[in-house]
Amino acid sequence: MVSREHKRAALYEKLQLLRSITNSHALNKTSIIVDASKYIEELKQKVERLNQDIANAQTTSSSSDQTSLPVQVTVETLEKGFLINVFSGKSCPGLLVSVLEAFEDLGLNVLEARVSCADSFRLQAVGGENEEEGESIDAHAVKQAVAVAIKNWSENTENE
Hints:
It is a single chain. By secondary structure, the protein is of the alpha+beta class. Helices cover 55% and strands 21% of the residues. It folds into two domains: 1-63; 67-159, Alpha-Beta Plaits. Strand 3 and strand 4 (121-129) form a beta hairpin. The chain is elongated and about 75 Å long.
């Protein structure tokens, strides 16, 4: 009997977690699962749009002048921090260091990151605000700081 109650409590806890992750206001199990399914579909569509944007950027960069550097930066606000994506259709030696220095200057801790620098440059990072810092950062400030770091990096590589 205790085991059944324990399982029921564990299931309830997992449903509440699913409900909070998907921002569902549903109260019964079925509605929570339906809301989660819709949330997953929205995420799939978002991934497809991002993949299209990346493909378009690659097409643009391969057909444009080699001296121009189209770098895409997106920043999304998460519950505690930001999801930062940086993409360029070509390899960018040294760009990662510049972007990470911008994070450090903002007081943003890198909680998780995936980087590819082979044929193209891709950075996907989850950054959290340093709780010791007094002021709060918004997504626009993060995007602007990364854009400035890219611009500075680009100017430095042109001069070399």
